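@channel sequence for tomorrow's demo:
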Amino acid sequence: MAWFKILTAGPFRVRSKQRDDETDVQRIAKLCGFLDDFRTAITRERDGLRARHESTMARAAFSQQSFENDRPDPAMSLIVDELTDAMMRYEARLRTLERQLAFVTEMRDWADRFPLENGAICDCRQTAGSEHINPRS
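structure tokens (generated this afternoon):
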């Protein structure tokens, strides 16, 4: 029965090369757009965290100086300890964000090279930058 359906279905047809190329260009553009958005989000988080880290370092330095120059105050010691802990968490998160940023940048570079290395005509840097494509579509 299945053979009969195959034989009567008509000739086997494939999409045109032009349509396949357009689909490939759209896919790589979505990927590049997503990676650009991802990199932007990581960069924003990193930059905001750096600003908070610098502010915390300044507060910790002034608190430590106040603690050392004035008579010792247990409350000030606690503040210095909390600021030190916060700085350590900020530094760990900054290292993580830098690793993520390097990873996403490497993926984006690879996505730029992929079409060129695989015979496609798409330049991801131009296609992704010309229009924003929703990566979830």
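heads up for whoever presents: The longest helix spans residues 17-69.
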